[in-house]
Amino acid sequence: MTFAAKFRMWSSINSHATFMVATLNTSSKRTTGHVFIAASVDGYIARPDGDIDWLSKYAASGEDTGYDAFMNTVDGLMMGRATFEKVLSFDSWPFKKPVVVLSRTLSQADLRADLGGKVRISSLAPLPLMQALASEGWRRAYVDGGRLIQSFINENLISDIVLTRIPVLLGDGIPLFGPLAADLPLRHVETTTFASGMVQSRYELG
Ligand SMILES: NC(=O)c1ccc[n+]([C@@H]2O[C@H](COP(=O)([O-])OP(=O)(O)OC[C@H]3O[C@@H](n4cnc5c(N)ncnc54)[C@H](OP(=O)(O)O)[C@@H]3O)[C@@H](O)[C@H]2O)c1
């Protein structure tokens, strides 16, 4: 699969022309976390081995799920190490915005030379990292990767989730959501359906 095809798959699925660009909170100095992700109807973001090829048919549908509009609202991305490793398997680096990879096992020295200036490795916990990024002027951060999203949710650092449900059951895989200390009510904002069968909902947290 070409890079272009893979990236279209990644971006389009992780991604609606009428996507409601979230209101920028210009009065607050804190960084807010935002999720934009695709999952199977049974709640998996990848197969057990990390495979996301099941998304490709939906990316190929040509439907605009709003990824570009979403990306225009964020200052940068934070991703878990496993998601970063998946992105490294693409033909080229797909992000124009700065990326912070959270990892306790990788260091800056492990980065490919061409990623210098584009990617930072951080071993900070979610809250101190958000505070550090706030001091750098980040207002909105895209948080990506199942386990990373779960840990940000558990620390109340996610403001909203745009979840695109892919009409497939995988039976097993890497889950989007995980254990919680208590039920977490979500405010449903909007749901859009696509001819391909994708269903995209936006929920606010907190
Ligand atoms: N369907 C979609 O739209 C979509 C979107 C994104 C990703 N994906 C897929 O999701 C898979 C990766 O998700 P994942 O849940 O396995 O992993 P992940 O969240 O991407 O990465 C988890 C890793 O991040 C590091 N980490 C550092 N601080 C952390 C913290 N506070 N909480 C959690 N992790 C922290 C740890 O790595 P160290 O061991 O190095 O410390 C941990 O093992 C990939 O297959 C990717 O393709 C799918």
From TrEMBL:
Give residue ranges for domain Bacterial bifunctional deaminase-reductase C-terminal: 35-199
Q: Which GO terms describe its biological process?
A: riboflavin biosynthetic process
The protein's name is: RibD C-terminal domain
Q: Which Pfam families match?
A: RibD_C
Which Gene Ontology molecular function entries are recorded, alphabetically? 5-amino-6-(5-phosphoribosylamino)uracil reductase activity
